[in-house]
Amino acid sequence: MRYQPTPKPFPAFVLAALAALVLACLPAARPVNAGTVYRDPLLWPFAQNSIWNMPIGLGARYVPARIGIPTGAALVADEDVLILTPNAPRRVVYLNTAGWDPSLSRCGTIDRTMPILPQPVPVPPSFSTEPGPGSAGYLGGTPNMSAAILLPDGRTVVQTQPFHVCGPGGLLTSQYTFPNADLITGDGIAGAHGGSGMSSIGGTLRLGELVPGGVIRHALKLELDGALYYYYSPTDPTPGYRWPALTADDYAATNYGGHVPALKMGSLLALPPSFPIKSLSTTPGKILARALQDYGAYVVDDAAWDAVQIATEWGPRGRVIDEFQHVWGFSFQPDVTVPCAQTMASCRWATDLARIVTHLAVVDNNSPACIGGCGARRAPLALPFDPKLIRN
After folding, report:
1. Taking burial as the number of CB atoms within 10 A of a residue's CB, which of 4, 191, 233, 242 is the most buried?
2. 316: cis peptide before it, omega within 30°?
3. Domain extents for the chain?
4. DSSP states of 32-68
5. 2-11, 182-191, 192-201, 366-375 — which is least confidently predicted?
6. Is the pLDDT at 169 greater than 90, yes or no?
7. What is the rounded CA–CA span in Å between residue 319 and residue 315?
8. Which residues of 64-85 are buried (b: 16+ CB within 10 A; e: fewer)?
9. 42-51, pLDDT tens digit by residue?
10. Rounded to whole angstroms, how far apart are CA atoms 70 and 354?
C-alpha cells in the first residue's frame, strides 16, 4: 500500500519523569512459579513455529539485498493499530471510501449504514487516532493503519485496513477486512498489510522492546521502495511476491523495479552473522540489529518512496514512537539523512540505521519447510504460553 508522509516535529520531553512510565509496561515474558517462565499471547503472540517467532537458522542462505542509503528518510514508522482490550465497550466499525486518496477524508466519507465487520468490537472510548486530546494524530497524509482488534474471547483478533478513530468517542471506520487470527494457535501469516496480505500484529515492534535493556524476540515487518527494490517477473509462479506473502501490490507489474530476484514482497531480510553489532554507536541501533540478525524482518508493504519503514505499535497502551522519544531523547524517525553531524544523537541513530539497512540480505532458503533457513536456530524458541492467560 502507498504511504504519503508529511513529517511533523516531536515535542521535547522530560526524560527522567517519563522513563518510569515506559519501564512499567508489561514484559512479554514473565515468571509464574519457581523455574517456569511463560509468555503472554497479547504481547508475544502466535504458535512457537510461526514465521514471526522462528529464529534464523544457522544454515540460512544469504543473498545481498543491495539496498542503498535512503535519500528520503532514514526510518519511518508505519503504525499498526493494536487494540487489545477485550473488555472495552463494543462498537461498530463503519465503512469509509477514502482509501489512500489524499484529497478525501476517511472520517468525511463514512457510510453509517454500512458496518464492515459482522459484529461490534471492543474499543476504549478514550482511544483516538485523530489529532486531539490524548492523541498526536496519525503520521503522514494517507497512512496504512493496519489494525488488529481483540475480541472478547481474549485470543481472536479481527484485522482491517485502513482503520481510523475519529476523535475520542468518535466513529470507528475502515475499508477492507482480512482473515481473523488466533493469537495462541495461529501461524500469524494472513492479515491486513494489504501489499502482502500479511499480519497486522505479527512482527510489529511492540512497546517495551526498543527501550534500555529491551530485547526484540521476534521477526519484524519492514517496507522499502518497491520502485527501487522489489523484483517483478511475469514469468514467476508468484510475480512480485514469495512465501509467506499472499500477494503483491496490484500495481506491481508497472511499479516494481528491483534488480535482485530474491527480493520481493514477502522476502525475509536479515543481517548476516558477520555484521559487527558492537560497532554501532547507539543502544537502540544495537537492539534493532540483534533482532535483525537473530530473527530478521519480512517485507510486507511498499513504502512508495526512498525510505525504510518499520511497523510499530499504536494503541490504548501507548505508541512506540512516543516511547522511543521518551527514553532515548531523540526521534524514532530521524530528522536528518546520512551523512550528517555525528555529534548529534539523531545523526548517530540515522548512521546506525544506514549501516544496518545497507548490510541486509535476503534469506533465500526461507520456506514453509525451513522457516528462517535450515539448521539449528540462532536464538531460543519462543516460550510456552501462560496457562492462566489463556481463555477457553
Report:
1. 191
2. no
3. 42-377
4. EETTEEEE-TTTS-S-TTSTTTPPPEEE--EEE--PP
5. 2-11
6. yes
7. 6
8. ebebebbeebbbbbbbbbbbbb
9. 999 999 999 9
10. 7
